[in-house]
Write a structure and sequence with these properties.
The complex is a heterodimer of chains A (about 270) and B (about 525). By secondary structure, chain A is an all-alpha fold. Chain A is built from 14 helices and two strands. Mean pLDDT of chain A is about 80; it is low at about 1-10. Chain B has about 525 residues and is mainly α. In chain B, helix 2 crosses helix 3 and helix 5 (about 100-120) runs antiparallel to helix 12 (about 295-310). Chain B folds into two domains: about 20-420, no CATH class; about 430-525, 2-Layer Sandwich (Transcription Regulator spoIIAA), CATH 3.30.750. Chain B is about 65% helix and about 5% strand. The chains are: A mainly alpha (about 270), B mainly alpha (about 525). At the A-B interface, helix 2, helix 4, helix 9 and helix 14 of A face helix 5, helix 9, helix 10 and helix 11 of B.
Chain lengths: ~270, ~525
C-alpha cells in the first residue's frame, strides 16, 4: 500500500502539500504553534526550523551557540524560561527594534542586540550579522513576540526598576545574604553548578554585560531570585547582593581592555 | 575474473602495493594539505549551510576514506561545487544550520554515496573521461574565478550578499563601497593576498602558510588596538569538536519523503562530484606515472560519501586545488591523503583555540590565492593556436561563471562530445588513378555521420574499377556497411571490379557477413610496424 503510493510521481510534491497543510493549520489555530509542538515535528519550514534552532541556542547555548560564546552561560540563565518569563528580561521584544541605545550610541537592530549578548553576557566573539546563530535567535525572538504591539513595550519588559532606597548598596550585607540564600545553587565562590550559571570568575559574564550594572542586577535579583521564592528579598537586600556580586573578579569589558582582552584569549589556551 | 577485479577495487590501499615510499615527502605534503583543508572545510561547511565543525569532520573522514580506498595522490574531501549544491538542495526543506537541516544533509550524503556506488557497480566511470583538455582548462579557470569572486565577501567584510550574482555584487559595491566595506577586514584580506603572491615567487611551497600567518598576525594586531567589538572583524569562532562524531541517517516516512524530493539533486551532486574526481584522475594519469585506477577511484568516492553519513560529514569529491598542491609537493601515493586526515585531527585537537581567532578575511584571502593559482596564463595561451579548442574553452568558462558550475560542467561535457564527433566525422580521402582503376584511400571513422562523403564518391566512380583502401579505418558501423552494399548492388559486376583492402580481421569478418554474394573481392594485408 505504502509502496504503491510512493511510486506515484505526484508524491514528489508531497512535502510542498504537507507544508501548505501545516501553514493552513497554523493560520486556523489561535496563535502560532507552541515551541513544544514544533520540537516534535520532523518537518518544518525555513522559518519554524530557525525558530527551533533559536530555541535550542537559547536553552543550550554551550552546545548550539558554542561557536561564538566564550563561557558556559546559557541565554536562558537570565532570560528565564527561554525568554518567556515577565520581569526576567523576556525576549518578546521584536517590536521594540530597531531603536536607539545609549550603550553604543547608535540605532540598533535586533541582530546587533543579539550579537552584543554574545560579546558581553556570554563573553565571547562578536558574530557577524548574517551568521546562522544570529538569524536563528532573531527568528525565535520574533516568534515569541507574536501578538505584541509594534513600538510598545510588552508587559514585564526588562527587569523592574527598584525605587531608590535612600541608602548606598552595602556589599558586606550583600555577602551575608548571598551566603544565606544563594550558595545552595551558585556555590560559595559564585562558581555555579551544571544548569546554574557562574556569577563571577573567568567563566561568568564580563564587565560590559547588562548584569554588570548594579541597579539592573538588583532588579533582576529582586524579581526572580532565589528561584521559586522570588520577591522575597527587600529592595535594599537585592541592591546589596548585586553590589557584592559585581564587586568580584570577572572578565574585562571587551571595548576597554583592548590588549588585555587579547591576552586573556591567548592565555586561555593553556586551560 | 570480473569478480576478482571488483574485489581488488574494494581493497583499501596498502603500502606494500607501491614499492618505493618517500615518507618525509608524503608527510610534508600531508601537513600542508591538512592546514589548507581546515579553512576550506570550514568555508565549504558555511557554503553548505552547516556549522563549521561539520567541515572539519568532512575534511577528516571523507578525505580519509577517499584516500584509503583510492589508488592515487588525489585528495578528496569537502569541495566547493558539491557544498554549494548541498546548500541549494537542503535549504528549501529547513533553516540553514538547524539540527533538522543537519539530519537532511546527512541523509543527502548517504544518497549521493549510494548513487556513486551504483555508478561504480555499473562501470560508469569511463563515461566521465570524455571531457576534452580545453573543457578541463575552462572548468579549472571558471572554478578559479568563482573562488576569487566568492572570496571577495570575506575579504571586504561584506554582510549578506551571498545570494547576489557576482556582477550585482560588484555593482552594489561600486555604488556603496564606503558603507559596505569593512576597512579592517579589507586590510587583513589584502595583506594576506599580497603576502601570498609575493611569497610565491620566493617560497612557492610555503606561500599559503606564510600568507595565513601574516594575515593572522595583522588581524591580532588590529583587534589588539581597535578591539573585535568595534572593528566587527569576522572570526572563525570556537569549533566544537568531538573525537568520534558518530551519526546516522534518520529513516522514517517524513525523511523518506524529503529524501525522494531531494533525489534529482542527489543525482546531480553524485555526477558532479564524480565528474570532478574523474577530471583529476585524468590529469594525474597523464602527468604522473601513478597506477591510477579510475574505477577504484569511483568506488573510493562512493564509499567515502556513504560512510560520511555515519561520521557527521557531508559529501565531498576530489579537490582540484589540494590535489594540485599535493602533486607540486611530490606526493605520489594515497598515504598523503590518509596522513592529512590524521593531521587535521591532531591540529584541531591541539590548536583549536588558536584557530578560533583566525579572521575570516584570512581564510577568504587563502581562497583567493588558490583561485588565482588555478588561472594559468600559459595553459590558456596554448589553446589560442586552435579555434575549436579555444571556443570550447570560452563557452565552458562563460557558462561556469554565468550559469554556475552545475550547468557549466554539462555544457563542457556536451561540447567535448560534439567536438569529438565533428572531428571524427571528417574523412581524409585521397584518390589516385592507377591504370584504369581508381584507388580510394580512406582515413578516419566510417559511421553514419561521415559515410555521405564516401558514398557520393563511390557513386561518381560507379563505372570504373575501384580499389577501396580501408586499411587505416579502425571503426565502422552498420550504416557505413549498408551504404557500401547499396552501391555494390547498383554496379555492373561484369564490366568493373570492386576491391576492398583491409587490415583488421574484425572488419573483414564484418564485411564478409554483410556483403555475402556481392561482386566484391577482399585483400587483407596485415600491417607490420
Amino acid at each position: 500500500m505504502l509502496h504503491n503510493q510512493l511510486t506515484k510521481p505526484g508524491l514528489l510534491f508531497t512535502p510542498l502539500i504537507l507544508a501548505l497543510c501545516l501553514l493552513s493549520f497554523d493560520s486556523f489555530s489561535a496563535g502560532p504553534p507552541t515551541i513544544e509542538t514544533l520540537l516534535e515535528r520532523s518537518y518544518l519550514d525555513d522559518y519554524h526550523s530557525n525558530v527551533v534552532f533559536g530555541y535550542r541556542i537559547v536553552t543550550e547555548t554551550e552546545t548550539y551557540g558554542a561557536r561564538y560564546s566564550g563561557n558556559h552561560l546559557r541565554c536562558t540563565n537570565c532570560h528565564l524560561n527561554a525568554g518567556r518569563k515577565p520581569d526576567a528580561i523576556p525576549l518578546n521584544v521584536a517590536g521594540m527594534y530597531p531603536k536607539w541605545r545609549s550603550k553604543n550610541g547608535r540605532r540598533n537592530g535586533i541582530g546587533l542586540r543579539i550579537r552584543e549578548c554574545f560579546v558581553y553576557s556570554l563573553d565571547g566573539i562578536m558574530p557577524p550579522e548574517d551568521s546562522p546563530e544570529v538569524l536563528a535567535v532573531a527568528a525565535y525572538i520574533s516568534y515569541i513576540s507574536h501578538g505584541e504591539t509594534i513600538g510598545e513595550a510588552p508587559a514585564g519588559r526588562g527587569v523592574p526598576t527598584l525605587p531608590d532606597t535612600g541608602y548606598d548598596p552595602n556589599p558586606a550585607n550583600g555577602k551575608a545574604i548571598y551566603d544565606k540564600n544563594c550558595t545552595h545553587c551558585h556555590g560559595n565562590n559564585g562558581q555555579g553548578i551544571p544548569g546554574v550559571p557562574s556569577l563571577w570568575g573567568m567563566d561568568a559574564y564580563n564587565k560590559g554585560a547588562g548584569m554588570a550594572n548594579t541597579s539592573k542586577a538588583a532588579g533582576f535579583i529582586w524579581a526572580n531570585m532565589p528561584l521559586g521564592q522570588e520577591r522575597s528579598l527587600t529592595h535594599q537586600d537585592a541592591f546589596d547582593v548585586a553590589a557584592y556580586i559585581n564587586m568580584q573578579i570577572r572578565p574585562g569589558d571587551p571595548r576597554k581592555s583592548k590588549l588585555l582582552k587579547l591576552f586573556e584569549a591567548i592565555t586561555g589556551l593553556a586551560d | 575474473m570480473r569478480n576478482l577485479r571488483i574485489l581488488s577495487e574494494i581493497m583499501p590501499w596498502r603500502p606494500l602495493f607501491t614499492g618505493k615510499l618517500n615518507l618525509p615527502t608524503e608527510t610534508f605534503a600531508a601537513l600542508i594539505a591538512a592546514i589548507l583543508v581546515i579553512p576550506q572545510g570550514i568555508t565549504f561547511a558555511y557554503l553548505a549551510g552547516l556549522p563549521p565543525e561539520y567541515g572539519i569532520y568532512s575534511s577528516i573522514f571523507v578525505t580519509l576514506f577517499a584516500s584509503l580506498f583510492g589508488s592515487s595522490s588525489m585528495l578528496g574531501g569537502p569541495n566547493t561545487a558539491v557544498a554549494v549544491l548541498i546548500g541549494v538542495t537542503v535549504v528549501p526543506f529547513s533553516g540553514r544550520g538547524s539540527p533538522l537541516y543537519i539530519d537532511y544533509v546527512i541523509l543527502l550524503s548517504l544518497m549521493v554515496g549510494l548513487i556513486q556506488l551504483f555508478i561504480w557497480l555499473a562501470r560508469g566511470g569511463k563515461y566521465f573521461q570524455y571531457l576534452s583538455p580545453a573543457a578541463i582548462t575552462g572548468i579549472t579557470v571558471g572554478v578559479g574565478i568563482i573562488l576569487i569572486l566568492s572570496s571577495l565577501d570575506g575579504i571586504l567584510g561584506l554582510s549578506p550578499s551571498g545570494t547576489l550574482f557576482f556582477f550585482e555584487k560588484i555593482y552594489v559595491m561600486a555604488g556603496d563601497w564606503h558603507t559596505l566595506i569593512n576597512p579592517y577586514s579589507f586590510t587583513i584580506g589584502i595583506t594576506t593576498v599580497i603576502t601570498g603572491i609575493v611569497a610565491k615567487t620566493r617560497y612557492p611551497r610555503y606561500s599559503i602558510l606564510i600568507a595565513m600567518a601574516v594575515g593572522y598576525i595583522v588581524g591580532l594586531v588590529l583587534m589588539g588596538i581597535f578591539t573585535q567589538v568595534n572593528t566587527e572583524i569576522e572570526l572563525l569562532g570556537h569549533v566544537p569538536f568531538q573525537i568520534l562524531p558518530l551519526s546516522y541517517p534518520k529513516m522514517d516516512l517524513e525523511y523518506l519523503l524529503v529524501g525522494i524530493s531531494m533525489l534529482p539533486n542527489a543525482l546531480t551532486i553524485a555526477l558532479i562530484g564524480l565528474a570532478q574526481s574523474m577530471v583529476i584522475v585524468k590529469n594525474l594519469r597523464s602527468d604522473t606515472d601513478q597506477p591510477v585506477n579510475a574505477d577504484k577511484e569511483v568506488f573510493a568516492q562512493g564509499i567515502a560519501n556513504t560512510l560520511a553519513a555515519f561520521f557527521s560529514s557531508f559529501a565531498g569529491s576530489g579537490s582540484f586545488n589540494r590535489t594540485a598542491v599535493n602533486q607540486s609537493l611530490g606526493s605520489k601515493t594515497p598515504l598523503a591523503g590518509i596522513l592529512s586526515a590524521v593531521m587535521v585531527f591532531l591540529l584541531i585537537l591541539f590548536f583549536a583555540p588558536l584557530l578560533s581567532y583566525v579572521p575570516m578575511a584570512v581564510i577568504a584571502g587563502t581562497l583567493m590565492l588558490v583561485g588565482i593559482g588555478m588561472i594559468k596564463p600559459q595553459e590558456i595561451a596554448r589553446l589560442f593556436s586552435w579555434t575549436g579548442e579555444l571556443s570550447v574553452f570560452f563557452v565552458t568558462l562563460f557558462s561556469i561563471v554565468f550559469l554556475g558550475l552545475q550547468s557549466g560542467l554539462i555544457v563542457a561535457f556536451i561540447l567535448s562530445v560534439i567536438m569529438f564527433v565533428l572531428s571524427a566525422s571528417k574523412l581524409e580521402i585521397t584518390i589516385k588513378h592507377v591504370n584504369e582503376s581508381v584507388q580510394i584511400r580512406v582515413e578516419g571513422h566510417l559511421f553514419y555521420a561521415s559515410i555521405d562523403q564516401l558514398s557520393s564518391l563511390l557513386k561518381r566512380h560507379r563505372h570504373e574499377n575501384v580499389l577501396l583502401d580501408l586499411s587505416v579505418v579502425s571503426y565502422m558501423d552498420l550504416s557505413a556497411t549498408e551504404a557500401i552494399a547499396k552501391d555494390l548492388q547498383k554496379r555492373k559486376p561484369k564490366e568493373t571490379t570492386f576491391v576492398i583492402v583491409l587490415t583488421s580481421q574484425k572488419l573483414l569478418e564484418h564485411f564478409e557477413q554483410r556483403l555475402e554474394g556481392m561482386p566484391v573481392q577482399f585483400i587483407q594485408h596485415l600491417r607490420t610496424q
